[in-house]
Amino acid sequence: MNGPDSPQGRPLLVVDDDRKLCALIRDYLEPLGWKVTMCHHGAEGLEEAKIGDYEAVILDVMMPGMDGFELLRELRKSSNVPVLMLTAMGDEADRIVGLELGADDYLPKTFSSRELLARLRAVTRRAVLTTPKEDSFDDIVAGPLRVNEATHVVTLRDTPLDLTTLEFSILLSLMKAKGRVKSREDLLEDVSERRFDIFDRSIDVHISQLRKKLGDDAKKPRFILTVRGVGYRFDEGGLA
Fold this sequence. Notes:
- There is one protein chain.
- By secondary structure, this protein is α/β, with parallel strands linked by helices.
- 37% of the residues lie in helices and 20% in strands.
- It is built from eight helices and twelve strands.
- It is elongated, with a radius of gyration of 18 Å.
């Protein structure tokens, strides 16, 4: 295993028991400016992800012992590092579970090298856009909900909310829309800066998780309203 302090390159952790695939990912990405650390066991990968200063983690779902879901669940207790999950045959159930646990994106294991690079760049770009900066912005306030774009701090009734990078970006996009409806495609473009199929429903999973963290009722939401057939709208009145 090589660590993130190895010579130059953007540090990336790959956790997968398929050693051949890990080597292929490393051989493709390192000439493009990444420095790849490989772990082949879930528990080992979790410890490395916690102590290493990585820009992103590529994580396989199916591993013996601690699988990718368990690893992600534990990792999200202490880290918001961007996570790109690999799923066998692009199974929808795996994708939904991964997104609900806080994955930033997913790829079926039949991915092309170009798609891997594009999605990796997208998840790391989102993280950079929401990383705290020295310059401060005024808080965006809606009733008891307060969002600071610079520090990535969100509080509801003075209680901090633990949002993933993608959840924060979605909330920020909706709040900045000032009551206007945002389509799924609009939201996907805002948070990822790349085009998705307009029927991609992964945004719905992130909205669902965001509602839970806002303490919202999924059946009768007050804060993030569903506009049937169109998209979503943030309702400032619901926060009164």
